[in-house]
Specification:
44% strand; 2 helices; 174 residues; 3-stranded antiparallel sheet; mainly beta; Pnp Oxidase, Chain A; 13 strands
Length: 174
Amino acid sequence: MDSNGFDLKDFRRACGSFPTGVTVTTVMGETGQPHGITVNSFTSVSLVPPLVLVCIDHRSPITQHLSTGHHFGVNILSDCQQEISTQFSRNWGERFANVNWRPGITGVPLLADVSACLECVITRSVCAGDHWIVIGRVLHIMISEEPPLVYFDSVYGKVVRHPRNTGAQAYSSP
């Protein structure tokens, strides 16, 4: 039992009953080395200005690259990228091995074949329990027609997307 009167496993199960998308948050290190981590705690915060947040465990080595003013990418994985999700949650030094990516407009690593990419600048980080809440202003986005990868009850899944447009789209904010 936790000091709150419930088992932390039950808390995890309750949170796991909420389906989420799966993302890989990416940054470029000071020496030009790409870094990334699988994150399913991602959400929009505001439309004006366009803000998003990701939550990252304090223990992750990527946190040393997440300072105010630095850029980061949010790569929303497509339903065929479960292996990439797993790869970016394991061995730190091997995360970009055999992964197709390119630098975005801000220089952050953007993964190929994703549902969408957002390039952001960190505006604020907040310590909350054992995680950092990293808030970023969205500078550029790219959207494809690839359906997203989802995670629910500790299992990966797919959703069916109704076609809205043909081809990929790219946007930038001023």
